[in-house]
## 1
Amino acid sequence: MNTKTIDKVILLVEDNPDDQELALLAFKEANITSKIITCSDGEEALDYLFATGMYADRDARIMPEVMLLDLKLPKVDGFEVLKRVREDPRTKLLPVVVLTTSSEQKDLVESYQLGTNSYIRKPVDFSKFIEFAQQFGSYWLGLNESPIRRGVRREN
């Protein structure tokens, strides 16, 4: 991955510690150099994005390049997170990629109705997860032009 991705932040919202670790390892194996912020539930993700709760000291003007969002989350599920992200002017343009184990058609449709930019089923095989991480990095951190990035400082 190109060095331009170093200053790009990924927000990973995943409640399963094994899946969280798998994703972090896959991104490392795929040479993704971006900072990855992890949140273990929907409430924490919203606190991070809106600089509330335990993230009250965070500069809310600094947004991640992209959010990877699981749907089945404790406290606040992924659908509600996506809904709140799209309703708020500060985050409505944030690219959101749903990364889930769900193969339910209703989850796919609802995710797009709520404004997801992409819906991906989690790879279960580690080599497939590395392949996903490489493709994700190439597209979302390399090729994609994000409206969030324009005029917004990056987090160190």
## 2
Amino acid sequence: MDAVSPVPSAAIEVVALTKRYAAGTPAAVDRIDLRIASGSYCCLLGPSGCGKSTTLRMIAGHESVSGGDILLDNRNITDLPAAARGTAMMFQSFALFPHLSAVDNVAFSLKMKGVARAERRRRATDLLERVAMGHLAERKPGELSGGQQQRVALARALITEPRVLLLDEPLSALDPFLRIQMRAELRRWQKTLGLTFIHVTHSQEEAMALADTMVVMNHGLIEQVGSSHRVYNHPASEFVARFMGGHNVFDTPAGPVAVRNDHMQIAPEAEGGAGVAARITDVEYQGTYVLIGLEQEGVEKARQAVSVLLGEAAFLARPWTPGERVRLSWAEADVRVLGPGVQRPAERAPAPASTLRDDTAAIAAFSA
């Protein structure tokens, strides 16, 4: 991709941000506080219904705010229309107009602003060249691959010269191979442009690959904020440890602890010794490693499932089979003590009701 002149970036801060769709119901987003550093790549991560997409839409101005504030470089944009915020949004479906060529899709927002045809097409063509799509400028979306459509959607978002780019699960519609390729391109574009990217995803792998800052959400609240390395290696709560995967959670007299499954030791039960009694339930060969699923004995059902990750060589040296009874152990240095997590929404006072902001024209002009 050709060099791109960096655009002045911005920090986003949300203060007590709340979204409630109806009075007396749990908040979709419940008074969250978050600061996203200028020029960083931030991923909002969590299961379906956790509030991550609602948070993104409120920042974009496509969803009304029930309470709290949104600041862009200390400028309060909470009540501004989408077109006046300095943000642009890429949607999960790319939302390209099927009857328009790639260049006309990119130029659409400038057309809505009244920019002359020659000028808007010149600027759109320049952006398509920058994302290696200039040679396909006259093709319509149906004539483009998923990756090519994503590049057109990116160019369309960038033509508005946003301070912050918002991405709502932009890779979920792509096949696995292309998804890996395109996330590398997204990261490269973010670094080249110097923009602040805020990316919503439900994929732990995607977030860890992309994020400078990872924000794990649950039930409209933020469970943990930190670097990918910090969140994965030092989960703040049982929810984070289980959601991020790769961890086993055990109850101890001091409370729950987490141990990464690649830090577990496994030995036949007949050998005796200290450890957690378990039975192997399944063995999955994954190429460079083998994932062994087990059930703990003598614990409640919700706590039974655990796993051990073995390198291929270690597994081939001592194969394990379903049904074997084993003992699991770990080094004290690998134990992570888990906190209680954040307060649940039901324990919080209700926020005022709100309605969906009517920004149809702005969305069509800047994010269609």
## 3
Amino acid sequence: MTLLLDSIKQPTLLVDAAKTKKNIIRMMDKATANKAVLRPHFKTHQSGLIGNWFKTLDVDRITVSSVEMAAYFAQHGWNDITIAFPVNIREIRKINHLLAHGIRLNLLVEAQDTVKLLSDAIEHETGVFIKIDSGNKRSGIPIQDTKCILQLSHQVFKSDKLLLKGWLTHAGHTYKATSVSAIRSLTEETVQRLKDIRTQFGEDGLLLSWGDTPSCSVLDEIVGFDEWRPGNFVFYDIMQYHIGSCSLADIAIAVACPIVAVHKERDQLIVYGGSIHFSAEYIAGDSGFRLYGYPVLLERNGWSELVTGAWVRALSQEHGVIQLPKGMTNSFRAGDLIGVLPVHACLTVNAMGKMQNLNGEYISCFR
């Protein structure tokens, strides 16, 4: 790690492989205990190498967020892939190309017009999930609209080349839940509604697919879903910590940022590490407070606990502003490195595009 730190000249995303593998094993064991198949979402790590760590645990199916990401992981040996984004008909050639090469895809639909277009354009049989909006209000058919859900399900079921796999939802609204009991309540309500839809449709073998890190992390039991699709759990982040999905010790990534200026008069460090490295996502607090990350000290075997009383208070394109307790700036100087635990791991990985483990070895990413 010392040699690694000496070699860092620019913002660098560091991955603690031991923590990452521990997170993977814990989620795999939890899904198994709940009689669910783990179909992890790979949009968080975006790495062929880290994908191989799942293979060692006999994970054989994955989730991605785009056709291009599906192609990347197909090249890394994955051939059972759900693209958890409403199908984009303009990419039908790429989809057909993957299917022609033996990749088993599952696509998401939520409208009859899309199903018609897909049925006409698809050249090989492909799996299809009906996308359900269970409360996140982003995409999908509202879960209360049973009539529309059943109509679309029958339309897919009757298609020659579309294989109805079941009903899929992403409970993104768990990120706004304020308690474990609230997460449990909305999870139980969703699974019961989806069970009722499956019963009305009359095909017991169809799947109920569920995906979000908070519920899969904080609930001991999630009974009734056939597969889980969490993604963020592989690294976790400050947002998940504040929700209660993980401990600080579970967070497996930190960005090493060079300190470029020390402002003792306002107890601040200016670091090379801005929104182009972390994204501009923040956690909002009272009175306009915004948290863009937590500083940590980089050590031989990783990083320290949080620097008490310090936080990333602002980001611009390349700049980051770290607020320190009064007098602490004496411990830092320009040219030092400091670590930052990010607010959102998925966006940080996507922004950085590559990672290094604590031995200094590069981990390439999809982007």
## 4
Amino acid sequence: MKKITIIGAGRVGESTAQILANQELAHEIMLIDIREGVARGTALDIQESANLFGFDTRVLGDEDPAAMTGSDLIIVTAGLPRKPGMSRSDVLDANLKVVREITDHILRHAPQAMVVMVTNPVDVLTYAVWKQTGWPRQRIFGLSGVLDAARMATFIALETGFSSRDITTLVLGGHGDSMVPMSRYTTVNGIPISHFLSAEQIARIVERTRNGGAEILALKKTSSANDSPAAAVATMVDAVCNDRRRVLPCVAILDGEYGERDLAIGVPVVLAAGGMQRVVELELNEEERRQFAESAAQVREDLAVV
């Protein structure tokens, strides 16, 4: 890509910029933050690592939203972070206001861009951006299942001792306590995890996956996760930049898939050049359908404020 803009130069924005620069996924990465000097300082810090990491990407920072002009892709990480004990929904009102203002800037300065939403609650805010822009759903998608599935894979690797490279996982539903880790679609080099783990072990991993972000937040206390979300965003960006046609779980706008319409929620999609090419609709069993419906209902409760 020619230019990627990251709005929000906090921990997630900074980590994302560093990974994207290291992987040279764009000629230019622009960081934008309303705090004076923060984006420019962060960008300069990353730029000064170019010789050491061996990348030629230009990393810049600015306070002016107009700096996003010419962006092919915009990643939104700005907003109020969670504090210990808070759910993702608890920051909805404050972050909805922030994201609506950001969307106004995107419409004005980068009307041809794709948008990746990271700010929580990401399902609701992805929907809000889609509604405000009126753009095709292919151009607006959010981070959820890539991160949640990576967490699930980590916990399986820790439990079994197997290489995380061999573990394939899938998580559907809202990016919150009602997410649906799909153990039936989870394998170790193609072998179902039920071959290696007991039902009790799997249930424990599923529950830890649902609380993966909260666990990190409770331990760090002053900040939430940043490295794993940034790596997940970079995985999505790589799929789009390099037209890989990867099947990845992301927040997408549903239009009849999974029996839902006019809803943003985590499902497997095909990510390639141009964004979300299509939703992959899986056959769910009765219990999976029930859990997905409960997750969708919880997202719709939050959507009532949009």
